[in-house]
Amino acid sequence: MRRAPIIIRWQTMHRSRRAMEWLIFAAAIILGVFATAWLTQERLIFFPQPITSTAHLTTLAEPLEVVAADGKRLHGWIVKGATVPGPTVIYFGGNAEEVSWTLADAHWPREWTIAGVNYRGYGESEGTPGEPELTADASAIYDAVTLRQDIDRTRIVVFGRSLGTALAVHLAATRPVSGAVLVSPYDSLTAIGREHYPWLPVSLLLRHRFDALADASRNRMPLLAIVGEADTIIPPERSRALFDAWEGPKTWLVVPGAGHNTLGASEIFWDGVAHFLAER
Fold it and tell me: What is the value of pTM for the model shown?
């Protein structure tokens, strides 16, 4: 009878020890998930693509090389328009895009010159992609393009798709442009991350935030925002948040039934782009 309290105490201590072990185990798993998210986030954001061919580019396409602020060489093309000096679109692509395919699209209005440079690590561009690097590179690309004599500096339109919309928004806030076209835009990558990973403290873990909201509130040039009705990667409400923050005149174009990667297959998409550019 005297040993019962000892047994009870031992059982209580054993249960407490097991509970602590499970707590430590759970904490280790959580910390491991957080550490993995911190260390591998670039693989979730950037998907560099190689150049598989240039045969699809027209004879009007000329190589365009831009030397970034840190000396890295960025490679792309400029497709000459029918007008010289010509109105020019500066294009910033998605996170898994090699830009030559978009530059080669036959839907671009013929009078417009189209310039696009692959992100660091994409195509033949040197370096490793990251938010500060791509943001600085966007300014370098703009400066290189607008130095050309065949470009009309008063008719520059920035055009961003998905990831590239944040770069276009920032460039519009820091350089003279006559308009912006944003395809599947978003307010911040933090907000997008919360949509897809609600169980992670995204705001604490994310290094590449691409916060476009503050820049949008500074922009007073015309905007065309194009979104896919069925986009599940960048939900329309995230695009709408950016659109609502834009201070200038703006047009909201929804492509019925289109997903994130099928917008460009719609005539509604290209008709909207052509109409917007014609007014610039």
Answer: 0.87
